[in-house]
Design brief:
17 strands, elongated, 488 residues, Immunoglobulin-like
Amino acid sequence: MGLAVGGLATGLDTQGIIEKLMDLERRPITLLQQQEDTFQVKLSAYGEVKSALSAFQSAANDLRYPSNFAVSSSSSSNEDILTVTSSGSAVLGNHSIVVSGLAQAHTIRSAAFIDSTDVVGTGTISIQVGTEDAVDVTIDSNHETLAGIAAAINSSDADVTASVIDDGLGNTYLTMTSKESGADNTISVNITNGASGQLDSLYDGGSMVTTRAAANSQLTVDGIDVERSSNTISDLITGVTLNLHKADNTVPVSVDITRDTDSIKEKISAFVDAYNKLVEEISSKQAYGGEDGSSGPLIGDSTLKSITWRLGTILGAQVEETENGVSTLFEIGISIDRYGKMQMDDTEVTDAIATNISDVIAIFTADTDTSQGIITSLSDYLDEVMNPVDGIISTKEDGLQSSIDDINDKQDTLEARISKREEILQAQFNRLELLISSYQQTSDFLTQQITSLTNLNKQIAGKSQTFEESREEERECSQRSIRITRCT
């Protein structure tokens, strides 16, 4: 923008005039901004609808496959003896288990020493657990005490844990315990003396003493005797993990594997809730004449109407070829109310899961040439709607964003044109001010000249009057002189 003269010559508020003219010029930009605001609101509204669709899609996916319904609940009649957990692959049923023995890790100890700081000596301790390769642990002068030897063993790759135990009776021992329980995981130790020649003093009677024997867990499952190397057993009953805590061969423990009805019902409830939130989201975006008289930003939007209609059609569909003839959501306790929301009857759904799980699974997950479940159809449609490249929502968002970009380009063009127009007007008003100022200077000069001429004329007129008066006096004197002469 050029330098503004500011109406000094004309007395006009030229800057104010220019600003008002520019306001008129900017009216198209204001209209474009209003259009952009409208598109931005619609774009934001579509983003919120997409978020609700995504949440619904996620809830639907939790019911998409039969494996989603393969959730079980497990219980133990005596958790002091054993506890149990189960996975989706567990076969429903009951098992009788007697635990007659727990698995143990092998523990050995050294000969007795006075305390942990006793110097034992240097050398090499070779440690082997079960059939694994032996690990050599070097004991140097920095580790020749009981505590040092334990630290060296624990920092090695040996599959044992070393400790120093004080029995409170004046005896201190080095112990080693295998990291894995089971009868096959016994510890073997071989010691080679170093320079001090005393490391083998760890031996008591030529070897380290076993304080706890390596042992397998022993149990009877449904009348069959079995052993395992661990007290955590997951390869005995498919999908079931047993955790043994105490042996008691006189107490049979009943383990029940049942279908987890509550877990399945929670998934269905989450699906219903997600759909209802989606319906609320779409309804709010298409609302007509709210409490404040305003309408939703996407009122009349054909895309949302299409989505709503399609979802309602899928949810109300009948699934063919179910095992017991139950083929709709309505028949298992899920209905659609007059507002388009799903209503779930807790009692009916629970009963359907407990007594007719095969049809419940088919209604949601069927996927054959002749039958397609609710979730199968929904997932296919939602994948189409939510496709980030050419999905219905993405296409709509891309169109709105393109319109916003076009408006921004138009605004930039108009702003540049208006800025140029403002510079031209500023220059024109500046020239006008300078021209008027020049005219005023000329007028002032002419006024000064006229004033000077007027004063000069007055001076000339004054001098002419004085001259005439002087000549008149001379004439009068001359006449008086003539008269006097005649008299004489």
